[in-house]
Amino acid sequence: MVVIAEIFLTAFFTVLLEKVASGDLFNLALPEGIYSRLQTWTSKLVLIQAVLSDAEEKQITAESVNMWLQQLQDLAYDLDDLLDKLATEALRRKLMMAQPTQASNPSMFRKLIPACCSTNFSPRAVQFDFNISSEIDNITERLEDLLKQKSGLNLMSDHLGGTSSRRTGEERPPSTSLVDEYSGFYGREKDKQAILAQMCLGSESSSNRRFRVIPIVGMGGIGKTTLAQQIYNDEEVKNSFDLKAWICVSDEFDELAMTQRIYKQISSDSSKFKDLEEGQVKLRGIISNKKFLLILDDVWNEKYGKWDVLSRPFQAGAPGSTVIVTTRNNSVASIMRSVPDYHLEQLENEEICSILAHHARGWQNFDAHPDFKEAGEAIAKKCKGLPLAAKSLGGLLRTKKNPNQWKDVLDSKIWDLPTENNDILPALRLSYQHLPSHLKRLFAYCSLFPKDYEFDKHDLVLLWMAEGFLRPSETHNEMEDVGFQCFDELLSRSFFQRSKTGAESRFVMHDLVNDLARHVAGHVCFRLEDKAESNVQHRRGRHSSFIRHEYDGSQRFEAFSRVRKLRTFLPLPIFETDSWSFYLTNQVVNDLLPQLHFLRVLSLSGYWILQLPNAIENLKHLRYLNVSGTAVEQLPESVSELYNLQTLLLRNCHWLTKLPTDTRNLINLRHLDIAGTGELKEMPVGLCKMASLQTLSKIVLGRGLKVNELRGLSNLRGALSIIGLQCVMDAQDAREANLTCKQGLEELEMVWSSDFDDSRNEMIEKEVIELLKPSTNLRRLEVKHYGGVEFPSWLGDPSFSQLEHISLSDCRHCTSLSSLGHLPSLKKLRMSGIQGVKTVGNELCGIDWPHVRDAFPSLETLEFVDMYDYQRLEL
């Protein structure tokens, strides 16, 4: 029996029904004569939705039900595309009504007509042509056919006792991003001590080798990485080595890339090597006569020559240097080891019970909880001694508050499914099956990430949002907040793990969890590296990712010519890089991409691309466009016609000089990241109309754009840089910007021109900075080239209780400093080029304070730089 991918559509159908019933679509449907069709769809969708829960349960053992669900899934995607096409036309008409001057221009109107509409049009309405009518008929027929098939599948409706009713009593636990990093370390203390003994801490090596290699060998999910992490972070280990590095290797054993990564970790130098020779010389130099510890996690390479090349610089290390390798493969260990392999065995059931009890209820074991003891210990046995399985099931059981629910888990049919040719543990599949439907879609989408890929939480939430997976909830109005809540819940259920080498927002998936994601995603998600031709040939794939190559030509993406309904074009880097060494040919950019009309996500990040084609306007469904790190100088004006766009990322486009003139038409845009665009000297007017904006990394004033354009952007979050404040001639514009009410802003940079010429007005600048008072939620403030004689009165106000970092630079006309000592959380204060200040006295701390020593309670760093006329510090 072949184990087939499970399909879950409940959340998808909820979204579809919401779209069919939307007010904007209703306003379009009436004049176009398709309202009755929408009503028909609604009634049929409701009938199908009623049996989805039962179908999703029975598909595990009934192949006919699974095949029906596959057809239903394809229909759901096609219906979603059609509804999105109709909604986009409704939005276009709404914009045209709001801009009558454009609507009255026939050539402009023709330009904005979507490809799905006929050329027979009028300024009032667009007549739908045969193609759109044909699509509507096709959807209707397929819905009717699936309803007929349903009657032969013996599926029960929810109100007749469908399986969803058995889960209605489950309580959703509060989620948090914090995890107990050591909670899974049960029963491994003996293993840890054995390896520490092999490392001979504090003693010289007794062999002729300059370094030893210790392989930790064991099956997936057994805890090899967790054990290595415990050793790596042990205090005795920290004190015994001069240098440490942790490298997650996985499938790619590239000698140059790994040398680069090792060197970067131990030197904090991220400059790129031109070749392996340079890299090995530099690495050898930095570890020479130093005792180092290197962890190579998840190694699969069986070629001795590759290991021999990589390890040559290690010979320069001091005696006692150690390389720890984790691998599932004995052959890998045999070519690397210098001491016997350490084989990690499955845990005893007692330890597995402890892990399960801890993650399920916060208990040490089940001894004090007899009602749960029998089922808990039986479930623990199903984990087959694997900590990962116990941790995953513990996350599932957290939602089960009574013993009968635990018995239901124990009696699940999933335990009886065959596992040959399938490495996915039933315990993990069971944890997935018990996820709420909306989380299933989010998790399956993560199958686009390769094994050991380190992804950013915020980036993933933006992708989920672009794909239409997130909807406002009762507790969260913003889709981003819903996404973060969902992410934290998946994290709490152990589907994600915190990265041990990256920033706080970076995460990875365990290999077995990654296998699970690929299994449940089925044909919907595919990666080009897998050469999954069978997934592509039937044209049912919707989301694709691929590892970015140094040269990506049209031949590589030949499969996409057969997947015309692709929604996701997502290149991923193997390693972080700031260099432009990746090329995407013009045939791909200009010919292939504009033909993928259904794209929601398009990323070209990191490629050496000079421009985007005007035909990008064909991608009417696009929600996410990432051109970060490319060489584009300007975007085509047609980008402003992508009305559905939610995220536009242009970070580190160093040559970008211009945004589209009608950027204001992007009324659904929520994130505009233009950080690192030093050549962008002007921005188009009308930003205030983009009321949904949350991310606006900077605003460049001048050429008609005034600071009061910020007034309508009440949802701004994160960091904002205001460039060109010397252009503000009317201080009331600063008042209208209303920064005080922008509670989500945490970082603010205020920048005037570095040219202090006669056009500058000190009085106006003083009034402007006074009226640009930010919210007291601010954490970081930078002021550059300010021309007033004193800083604003709000600077130093103790109500800014969260302010941690202040930088004041080149404010050369200021003659005194603000009283900053009142700020309770200020950690770093930097003052540079404030040449008008002659002395620094108690006024910096707050002269009204009776005890000056109580000033700056949290200060860690204080810098005075380029204070040319500064004479003395009086405190």
What does this entry look like structurally?
This protein is an alpha/beta fold. Among the domains are: 10-167, no CATH class; 189-343, Rossmann fold (3-Layer(aba) Sandwich), CATH 3.40.50; 790-875, no CATH class. Helices cover 35% and strands 13% of the residues. It contains 27 helices and 27 strands. The chain has an eight-stranded parallel beta sheet with strand order 9-10-12-14-15-16-17-18, covered by helices on one side. Strands 19-20-21-22-23-24-26 form a seven-stranded parallel beta sheet, with no helix packed on it. A five-stranded parallel beta sheet has the order 2-3-4-1-5, with helices on both faces. GO terms for molecular function: ADP binding; ATP binding. Residues 1-23 form the signal peptide. This is Disease resistance RPP13-like protein 1. Residues 708-833 form the R13L1/DRL21-like LRR repeat region domain.
Helix and strand topology:
Layout: H1 10-20, H2 23-32, H3 35-58, H4 63-98, H5 100-103, H6 106-111, H7 130-150, H8 189-199, E1 211-217, H9 224-232, H10 235-240, E2 243-250, H11 255-267, H12 276-287, E3 292-299, H13 304-311, E4 321-327, H14 330-336, E5 342-343, H15 349-361, H16 370-382, H17 387-397, H18 403-410, H19 426-433, H20 437-445, E6 455-456, H21 457-466, H22 479-492, E7 497-498, E8 506-508, H23 511-521, E9 525-527, H24 533-537, E10 543-547, E11 551-552, E12 568-572, E13 583-584, H25 586-592, E14 601-603, E15 624-626, E16 647-649, E17 671-673, E18 695-696, E19 698-700, E20 718-723, H26 731-737, E21 745-751, H27 762-771, E22 780-784, E23 805-809, E24 828-832, E25 839-840, E26 861-865, E27 872-873
Parallel strand pairs: 1-4, 1-5, 2-3, 3-4, 9-10, 10-12, 11-13, 12-14, 14-15, 15-16, 16-17, 17-18, 19-20, 20-21, 21-22, 22-23, 23-24, 24-26, 25-27
Antiparallel strand pairs: 6-8, 7-8
Helix pairs in contact: 1-3, 1-4, 2-4, 3-7, 4-7, 8-9, 11-12, 11-13, 15-16, 15-17, 16-18, 17-19, 20-23, 21-22, 26-27
